[in-house]
Amino acid sequence: MAVEIERKFLVRSDVWRDRIQHSEVMAQGYLVGMQALVQGLAKSSVRVRLSGEQAWLNIKSATRGVSRAEYEYPVPAADAREMLDTLCDGVVEKVRHHVLHEGALFEVDEFTGRNQGLIVAEIELSSEDAAFPRPEWLGTEVSELERYYNVCLIDHPYAIWSAAERAAEDAGAQAC
Prior knowledge:
By secondary structure, this protein is mostly beta strands.
């Protein structure tokens, strides 16, 4: 079984922009109904992701936390476009920037569309307790907050978040 161990953080400044290795525009949507995921009725999320002429089908366990089972398979870009247009309840759009810091790769997602203004940095690790560098632009960790999960951003986009939801310290709010 493939396991993804990923930590997610808010970004507190634009200093990271000087360290971008490359960027890619992405669109992703979910094939499993979001309400089933949010209500805990689904064991996994199933999403399609399109980046240029590359596309993937991704299956991830519907568990909170930094470690989740994950499987990813390439699919034809034309199929992905059709799935995004016809089978998904909505689409998350973002630019993913690959940023290298002290040998560690951070993926900085700069959301567009209805999630414009949200910028989140992710780092994949070999274990939950693996050490990693913490650049000065890395803000509050939001790995456990469901409202930052891409599946939640479709149904409850950043543009309509309340002031309390935008405050990263409001760890108790799990609305999505």
